[in-house]
Amino acid sequence: MKPGLLIHTCSRFFSARQIKGALRLGDAVIPGDKTLPSFSETEFIHHIDRMLEYMESDDRDGLGLLMNVFSITPIWKIRLLVSLCDIHRFLPQFLGTPFRLLNLGLKGIIFTLYYSGLEDKEGHGARILKTIGWDAHTPSYQPLDKAMSENRQISAADIGKKAKDVSQEIRALSVAQRLKFVSQLKHLIVSEKEIIIERIQEDTNKSRSDALVSEIFGVLDHLAFLESEAIKALKDEKVKTPIALLGKSSKIYYEALGTILIISPWNYPFYQAIVPIMAAFVAGNSVIYKPSEFTPLTGLVEDLMSRIGMKDGWVQVVYGDGKVGSSLIDQVPNKIFFTGSVATVKKIMTQAANNLIPVELELGGKDPSIVFADANLDRAASGVVWGALTNCGQSCTSVERIYVQDTCYEEFKNKTLNIVKQIKQSRDYDGDADIGGMTTKAQIAIVKNHLDDALAKGAKLLSGDEWDGQDAMIPPLLFDNVTDDMLVAHEETFGPTIVLLKFSDEHEVISRANDSIYGLSASVWSADKARCDRVARALEVGNVSINNVMLTEGNHHLPFGGVKQSGIGRYKGVHGLRSFCNIKSVLIDANSKKIEANWFPYTKKKYQLFSAMTEALFTGGILNFIKFAIKGTLLESAAQKSRNQSK
Amino acid sequence: MLPVDDFIIIGAGISGILMAKHLSSSGATISLLEAGSYFNRHTYPRKEIDANSQLYWGGGIELNQTANIGFLRPKVVGGGSIVNQALLDRFDHEALSSWKQESNISFFTEEQMKPWYEKAESSVNIQEIPAQYRNANANVFINGFEKLGFKCSPLKRAQSQCQYEKGNDCIECLAGCRLDSKQSTAITALPQALKNGVKLMSQFEVTHFERSGDIYLVHGKSQSGEYKRLRAKKLILASGAIGNSKLLLNSKYANTNKKIGTRFYTHPQFMSLGLYDQEIAAHKGPFQAMKSDEPHFRVNRFKLENVFAPPVGLSMLLPGLGIKHMRAMKKLRHYACVEVAIRDQIPGQIKTTTNGKVQIAKSVSGEDKISYKKGEKVIHEIFKSTGAKEIIDGELSIGLHLMGGLCIGDNASKDIVSPDFSLHDDKNIFCADSSIFPNAPGINPSLTIMALSLMASQSILKQSGHS
Asked: Which of A44, A54, A103, A130 has the highest number of chain B CBs within 10 A, making it the mutation to test binding with B?
């Protein structure tokens, strides 16, 4: 492992420095040899909380102090100290005590982590046990379903119940109180950002800059939006009360729904966790969060939540695949917030339909970029290449179709190719790479399939032909000679493809851009503002960037969402925040003796008055207003009489 | 108003669960409180790191004040019967007569204990390991004993379906049996108790209790940190020597009785490893099968058993660090292991600090050290006579049998628990677990805890007019 790659916030109790100290201690105790790795070559340190959590707090504090010292002590000195502890055997009882304590405590921690057969990426745990010859097992044991035993004693029902039980606690907090957690989280993420980025990189293969820009910056931006807008967006709203309801007042309360189940995808595992979790929380809901099984960021979200003081059960993280998700839907959350693919969501909606659970869906897209010949072609080319390749093309709003006006097609193509040639690809550790690699094997296979299909149907590949069809580091694939019947032109690829298509006029390109089952977002590039606006209005999508790309997402005041098979509902912005709310209408009247005109009894006289009043009210003009006032007053007084009195 | 139970039982180990089962059969309402978790065979922690953290107090081990004895104190529903090796032995004449002498209680005779032992034994399956399944570690033990002319015999184990023929390695069941073969009270008695309506609260740690009129208020906190109070007419203390002493001390009962926490015994154990050229694989199959059965060992107050430890445990036994230690770990399959457990005569004391934490004063010295050294010498002879090329004595002494602190006896000025299992100071608080042991018997305590708990249950029911 490269130095500096370790996740130093793997502990709720130890700081990055203390973890560094523990790693040094580890290497002093277990330096590694030909057949066994050194302590720091493994990633067992990530599991340290499995011990620290159960220690007495003052023991833990003492240990923490030592680790701080060890973080700046050379390893040979640590080794000397630990060996010196062995002199306890030559000292009388009371004198030997501190050495024995140190000896036991220090060796105990390292040996426990090293010899417990823990998992890490390289499979060190199992290999170490094999190397020392440990092979105890219980072949007669029949395990239960894996997912169940992983979530140990906690069943989906317990999780659902817990979420419901605590939802009142959250609801009882004011929005301002909830925002305190948001501010703390913002500070925590800022101070731990490099570590979080490494964590994201490990699960996703992203480039470091990709992780910083889209995940960390995006999350912080959203938290800042919540801080500045949530109080306004969620406070009781007074609305107009029409004159026919004179004397009453009307309000809207933005209340919590209860429990929100958030099911997130693997492409932006941090952003798609924190943004909906915190929005749902600020709206007053408890959250059950299920990350994608491909990018679980195991422990990270719980860690952050507990460090900002979120109480047990407010945000529960449940790991697992679709089966686990399904068992959570069975607990009837008040809303499901899903981001992911159309195939998965069809199953989710079918299941949700049984209990009429509302869904908020952010799905895929086949987003078009339309480049008119009068656009600044250098800017447009740079923009669409970024839009197509950012996050290695694994964004729901990636630019997947680039319609270029025929008169500038060749020029634009050459500019694009020039930019693509300079793209630097690496899962880097210093931010000096444009794109990283693909996250899942399944998606790599889809890219391969789309590539093969395009080539078979006559497309030309202008870059990326060195790709072997398997490596996760798919280079940018720039396609020329593309026809609308190719998969790359109409199905979501979700990879680093740049698909150039030629068009001749505005009318044609709008109809081709709209000829898709998706409708997520689009971009329009032109010097003609009026045309840009025309096209933006004509496109059947949820979001349009004009002379820019994927930028509606960059403004957290704008709602985000798609039409057609790209989604249902909106998230982010005030609309998004309110989508986690029960928008409750309240009409307030006085506790008077008055009987309302529209209540029983309905009498002939009241009918005539109501009819005349209706005509007066909706015809307009000052005379009619006076007439309305008179008829209304008469109707009011008639309403106070019972049927018998009216006769 | 909080409901009032007939009994609150503090601690769901061997004694607590058995008493819950028997007392609830009379219709009494019972809350059974346990600080540890309630696992089942599918959910016991499988990694040593988690087993240590989640099944024991103190994150795995608690130390005496001089940090040379580690106490393994179970913290789990089922208590010691989850993490032990399920060894069930009746006390012999020697143990019982010394108890009788110490406590002046007449029922501590083999004759009078017999029906209770029988009753305890009948509630579980007891087996010996068939000779053909003994592993090489057991055979080293047997060969050594034969060569030295000492007598050894098979251990009696509470187990039902270990299926050795299928290649199960019992060392895994130290963290809870995955086959439900080990006869823990969590499977032999708890299901009936729950059926009888006993309310089990796991992950609930009792901090102290107080008396208010005729009622006991029991204070505790759940794992999430939530404080709760429960009420009952009678209390049963079943948290073992350390747990019960701590509870009484923190509930200020020490004001009336300075003897709480004294006379604490642990059968200190020392493990030694013998390194052999040939493979031993002490962790394979049934890993603990034999015990010494030699009268002069008994006289000298020690006994030997063949044992072994999983990797983390082994790593803590082996001395040194760095390359040397790693090299020693790689010989795991070539170690045989024998432990000596001593019948300690010099008691320790359990105290609490002002903030309620346990402090244990206990040492192995004087005649106890002599017993230990005698036992260790025999182990060395066993290893030498069977061809070991190197002998390593374990680093740390372990206390597994935590006994005393609330010793039983008829003398109210010296003893805490009276012969009818109530406290001398409070006739509505009862105790029948290992904390009442008047001294160290030198024999595995489980079966006797069971027998005493059954005896106490009957006595309590009789007193309360239930039956």
From this structure: A54
